[in-house]
Design a protein that fits this description.
With 150 residues, the chain is an all-alpha fold. The protein has one domain. The chain is 73% helix and 0% strand. The chain contains three helices and no strands. The longest helix has 51 residues. It starts with a helix and ends in a 32-residue tail after the last helix.
């Protein structure tokens, strides 16, 4: 009886150890590969290659869904999305400000055009130049000139 219980106990322990080894054999390489892809995605992200990093992070989540790297990749994807949303909102706000300034400038120009269009016509009076006073001949001098002899 004891031998049988010992055999059953050994079989159960062997099965548990076999399951653990199989789990480690199947998951550890995945974790290592997922971590390598995650490091590459972070380096791409730091280098400004957002699209490439997004693709790598998406592949990690799809190919290695039960790894820690997949959780980190999900968080990184959310942060990338939030950063892009914030950047787009800032760009949109700047465009709206520009549009409002341009609309105000157009309105001012239209008002000035309307003012010019609705202004009463100006009559331009050209006056002839005043006639100059007639020149008086110089008055004869009271001195007499002496003629010189030579």
């Amino acid at each position: 009886m004891r031998a049988r219980a010992l055999l059953i106990g050994t079989a159960v322990i062997s099965s548990i150890l076999g399951a653990i080894v199989a789990y480690l054999v199947l998951t550890v390489p995945n974790d290592i590969q997922a971590n390598a892809l995650l490091r590459q995605a972070h380096s791409d992200l730091n280098a400004g290659k957002t699209e490439r990093a997004r693709d790598s992070l998406s592949n990690i989540v799809q190919q290695y869904p039960r790894t820690d790297a997949a959780a980190a990749a999900t968080v990184a994807l959310v942060k990338i999305g939030d950063a892009e949303l914030s950047r787009l909102q800032n760009d949109l706000a700047a465009l709206r400000r520009d549009r409002e300034q341009e609309a105000a400038a157009i309105t001012r120009l239209q008002q000035s055009v309307e003012e010019v269009k609705n202004a009463p016509p100006k009559t331009i009076v050209v006056q002839a130049p005043a006639k100059p006073a007639p020149k008086k001949s110089p008055a004869p001098s009271t001195r007499q000139r002496r003629k010189r002899r030579r």
